[in-house]
Amino acid sequence: MTKIRDMNVGILVGRFQPLHKGHVKAIEFARNNSEKLFVIVGSAEKSNQKRNPFSFEERKKMIDLALKQRKLQENISIVPINDAKNHTEWIESIKNAIGEYNLIFTNDELTEKLFKEDGTKVLNVSLQDRNELSATEVRKRLELDKEWESLVTPEIAQYLTEINAVERMKSII
Q1: Quick count: other Cβ atoms within 10 Å of Cβ 39?
Q2: End-to-end CA distance of the chain, in Å?
Q3: What's the rounded mean pLDDT across residues 118-145?
Q4: Which residues does residue 14 pair with via DSSP β-bridges, in sequence order?
Q5: What are phi and psi of 21, to 5 degrees?
């Protein structure tokens, strides 16, 4: 039986509001550098807000669609994590949700610092065209009904269209 300490068990944290091409590349990178990967969906309790328009279930569906399209579903689990009162509580909630892990994929300085302090190995994910590939930019374009489809993969564009993402972003106050 393989023990966790003998495997690369990684986590990748994001809000994925919505999932865009940069997120997909990060998930591919993390999966290619771990034997088991947990995609942690942060702020899972939030939805119908300008910064958090999509529910956890909708974000999970986006990730599932992207994984299926790339045949990456094996050894990946998608886990919701709610916001916490402080950083220690947040890391503990991740540990309680998934158990042991020994690797985190991130480019966020605070996340890197927190997990290094906790003894977790950090692998930086290269950011893809960060000026345009950000969930903030996708949300802005959805709200303004400007070209947003090129920032997401085709299956995500189709899903966002199906759930009326443009109308939702316009309606959220």
Answers
A1: 26
A2: 52
A3: 88
A4: 41
A5: -60, -35
What phi and psi, each to the nearest 5 degrees, are found at residue 108? -80, 125
**Is residue 1's pLDDT more than 90?**
no
| pLDDT tens profile 77-86 | 999 999 999 9
* Token code pair at residue 80: 């919701």
Closest to 18 in 3D by CA, of 54, 64, 69? 54
Q: How far apart are CA 140 and CA 144, in angstroms?
A: 6
Distance separating alpha carbons of residues 87 and 93, to the nearest angstrom = 10
Token digits for 65? 């669609």
Contact 14, 41 (CB under 8 A): yes
Return the amino acid letter for 61.
Answer: K
- Residue 29 is which amino acid? F
Cβ atoms of 80 and 57 within 8 Å: the answer is no
Contact yes or no for 75/81 (Cβ under 8 A): no
CB 80 within 8 A of CB 41: yes
- pTM for the model stands at 0.93
Distance of CA 18 to the CA centre of its chain: 9
User: Is 35 in contact with 9 (CB distance < 8 Å)?
Assistant: yes
